[in-house]
Amino acid sequence: MKLSNQPFLLETEGDRACLLLHGLGGGVYEMQLLGEYLYKCGLTVQGINYPGHAEIMAKMPASKWREWYEHIEETYQKLSSKYSSISVVGFSTGCPLALYLAATNPLEKLVLLSPFLAIKHEWYYLLKPETYLASVGWLINDVPRLKLPIRDRQMCKAAEEAAFFKTFNLPTVKSALELINAIKPLLPQIKEPTLIIQSHKDTVVDPSGARIIYQQLGSSYKKLCWLEKSDHIILLDVERDRVTQEIKDFLLP
């Protein structure tokens, strides 16, 4: 399997489009297989890389969430000028970005995959990771990126070859936390039908974030699906076929 981190636009003759939003420090390669699948199902799909995520560099550069959102909204406006309905699929940090978009723009449907609401807190950390970021995080700019959180070994290797960065930029991570704080009070006013998929074995984000979003969303239709085998990047992991089928059934019933 060959993954690419180059943005894509796959257009059909229909009037429905789907915008795919990747995770923090990742890239459009995380969304590639889903994009190809939804295109074959008849949807126009667009995958983008955010500012600070779009160039191959030794270290991940610093960027801010408002830069990412500006690019997302610009892409959304271009799609909405051509297609009558737009759905958004967000992965990890792409989820609060998708929610922020939904709070201020009309969307047909929302899909949230492994939503980033809090960093996974293991007992041996003593303090929450966010606490460390708020203290020593001011002194350190970069930390090494360890093995990608994918249990499928072959897919993990393909993703590591496609990924641009081998580090995380901590000021950028803190900006993502600022985005999360901005979106939390907006959840009750978001009314779009929403599908949330989260793995219990996620080692990156706290799985309880998916339940919090589900409980607080103002949507009249919302569905929360749990996975039992995958790690964080569920679109590339061992249960990816179930994930893509759930998304297809939700977007194209």
Notes on the protein architecture:
This protein is an alpha/beta fold. It has a single domain, classed as Rossmann fold (3-Layer(aba) Sandwich). 34% of the residues lie in helices and 17% in strands. The protein contains eight helices and nine strands. The chain has helices spanning 32-40, 65-80, 94-104, 129-134, 153-162, 170-183, 208-216, 240-251; strands at 8-10, 16-21, 44-47, 85-91, 110-113, 142-144, 167-169, 194-199, 222-227. The strands form two sheets. It has a seven-stranded mixed beta sheet with strand order 1-3-2-4-5-8-9, with helices on both faces. A two-stranded antiparallel sheet has the order 6-7. Helix 3 (94-104) packs parallel to helix 6 (170-183). The longest helix is centred in the first third of the chain and has 16 residues, at 65-80. The radius of gyration is 17 Å and the shape is globular. The mean pLDDT is 92.
User: At CATH's second level, what is the architecture?
Assistant: 3-Layer(aba) Sandwich
What is the N-to-C succession of helices and strands? EEHEHEHEHEHEHEHEH
Low-confidence stretches: none
Strand order in the sheet with the most strands: 1-3-2-4-5-8-9
Shape: globular
Task: Tell me the major beta sheet.
Answer: 7 strands, mixed
CATH topology: Rossmann fold
Q: Report how far the terminal alpha carbons are from each other.
A: 29 Å
Count of helices? Answer: 8
Write a brief structural summary.
The chain is built from 8 helices and 9 strands. It has 253 residues and is of the alpha/beta class. The longest helix has 16 residues, at 65-80.
